[in-house]
Amino acid sequence: MRGIETASQLRDGTSRRGFLKASLAGTAFAASMHQLDILQSPALASELKRQQKHVILIWLAGGASQLETWDPKPGRATGGPFAAIQTNVTGVSISELLPKMSQRMHHSAIIRSLNTKNADHGGAAKIMETGRAVDQGIPCPDLGAMIAHELGRADSQVPDYVSMYSSTEGRRQGGSGFLGGRYAPMFLTEQMIPENTSRLESLSELDHSARSDLRSFLANRFREGRPDLSVDSHNSAYQRVRGIMSSANLFNIELEPMDVRARYGPTQFGEQCLIARRLVEAGVPFVKVARAWWDSHGQNFETHLELVTELDHVLATLIDDLEERGLLEHTLIATFGEFGRTPQINSSLGRDHFASAWSASLHGTGIRGGSVYGKTDADGLKVIDGEVNAADLFATIFQAIGIDYRKEYHVGARPVPITDFGGKPIRDILL
Fold it and tell me: Which PANTHER family is this protein grouped with (predicted)?
C-alpha cells in the first residue's frame, strides 16, 4: 500500500529475515522475496517454513472470569464455589476447572494484573484487538494484521491471517486498517471451509491446470519490458488466489486421522483449534479462534463449569499436538478476551463486566514456562503489583515471536508505532 512503509525495512526484525540473513550470508538483502526467488530451493523453503513463527489467539468472547480460570480466590466472599489446585510448577495454583492445564504450566505464563479500564464490550474489544487505548484518528490494524504483515511471506501460498467466529453473540471481524486489504483476515463464520475455493465440477483438473499455465505464460510475456508495480501486484494477487484455492484442504478436518480428531473432541471449538494447528503447520502466521459466549451476568458458575472445562481440554490438546509435531517452539498461543468478570457476585449469581484487574495467558514460543506476573488483592478487586495494559501485552507478544515492539509504520509522513505509546514487554515472563 503506497504511503505505508516500515521505519527500517532492511533490519532483521523478524525471524524470517534473521533466517534469510544467516542462510544467504554474503548475499545482498536489498532484493524482494520475488527477486531472490528463494522458494525455488525446496530444502531452503522447508527450513524457512519450519523456522517461521506463528500465533494462535483463542479469543474468549464476552469476557471470561479470571477467578474461575487463572486467578482463583478460594475461601473469599468473591471466590465462588470452585477451589484452587496446585500446578506442576511449585507455588503456582489455578482454578480446579483447569486440571489438564495445571499439568502444562511448564509451557505457560499467566498475567494476573491487566488493567485496561474500559468495561464496555465494543470499546474494550477494540482495545484488546488493536492494543490501543486511545483512538488514533486513523483505522488501525488489529493484532492479526500486524503479525501477518511482519511474518507473512510475499510468495506464500497460504493465507496470512485466518479468523474463525461461528457464534453470533459479539461477533467482530477485526481488520487490517491502514495496512490495507492484503493483510485483512480470511473471516469464517457460517462454515469452516472457505467459500468459492473449489474448482467447478464442469472443469476438469487437467483443463484447470492448462488454463492456469496459459494465463501464466501470457502474463509473463506481457510483463516483459513493462516494469510496473500494478502489473506485479495483479500477478501476485492471482498467485495468492491460486494458492488459497490449493490450500482449501487445510480447513477440512476429515483429512485428519480419527484418533487425532478424537483427541480434540467433537465440539466446534475443538475442531476449530484442530484447523488452527493445520494452518500454522502449513505456514499461516496468525490464526484467531473465537469461543463465545462468556458474558455471564447470570449463572456465572454453571457457564464457567461448561466453558472452562472445554477450554481446559482443547487448550491442553492443542499444546500437546503442537509439541509432538515440533511446532510449539515456534508457536505462541494466547488466551484472552475483551475484559474479565467482577469479583462481586450479583443477585443472579453472575459476574458483570470488569476491566480493572483481570488475567490473560500465554503458552509456547518465547515464554518463560511456569511464570506468573502481577498480583491482585485478596478479593481480586484491584491490581496491587505489576499492573499492565493492552499495549504491554501486545509488546510482550511481539517480543516473544521476534518482532521489534519499537518498530514504526508510516502513514504518509505520520509515524505510527506497532506498539501503542509507552507499551513495554513484560520481561519477567519472556525467555
Answer: BLL7424 PROTEIN, DUF1501 DOMAIN-CONTAINING PROTEIN
Torsion angles phi and psi, residue 380, rounded to 5: 75, 20
What is the β-pairing status of strands 93-95 and 353-354?
unpaired
Asked if residue 337 lies in contact with residue 294, where contact means CB atoms within 8 angstroms, the answer is: yes
Please tell me the distance from the alpha carbon of residue 376 to that of residue 113, in angstroms, as a whole number. Answer: 6
Backbone angles phi, psi at 268, to 5 degrees: -60, -40
Over its C-alpha atoms, the chain yields an Rg (Å, rounded) of 22
Q: What is the DSSP letter of 388?
A: B
Q: What CA–CA distances, in Å, run from 409 to 5, 123, 256, 425?
A: 6, 24, 40, 19
Outline which parts of the chain fall under CATH 3.40.720.10: 45-192+252-429
Alpha-carbon gap, residue 157 to 49, rounded angstroms: 12
Q: Check: CB of residue 172 under 8 Å from CB of residue 125.
A: yes
Query: For the chain, what percentages of helix, strand and coil (3-state, to nearest 5) are there?
Result: 40, 15, 45
Locate the DSSP E strands across 54-98. Answer: 54-60, 84-86, 93-95
231-237 long-range contacts, CB within 8 A, separation 24+? 232/34, 236/34, 236/154
Asked which of 163-177, 242-256, 341-355 is least confident by mean pLDDT, the reply is 242-256
Q: What one-character-per-residue DSSP string does 12-43 give? A: --SHHHHHHHHHTTTS---S-HHHHTGGGSHH
Q: What are phi and psi of 155, to 5 degrees?
A: -105, 20
State the Cα–Cα distance between residues 101 and 308, nearest whole angstrom.
11
- Cβ(146)–Cβ(57) below 8 Å: no
Strands (E), 229-382: 286-291, 331-336, 340-341, 353-354, 358-364, 371-373, 375-376
CA distance 373 to 383: 11
Fold of 45-192+252-429: Alkaline Phosphatase, subunit A (3.40.720)
Distance of alpha carbon 169 from alpha carbon 370, whole angstroms = 34
H or E segment to which residue 109 belongs:
strand 108-114
Residue 229 banded pLDDT, cuts 50, 70, 90: low
Q: What is the mean pLDDT of residues 45-71?
A: 88
Please give the mean pLDDT across all residues of the chain: 87
Question: What percent of the chain shows pLDDT beyond 90?
Answer: 72
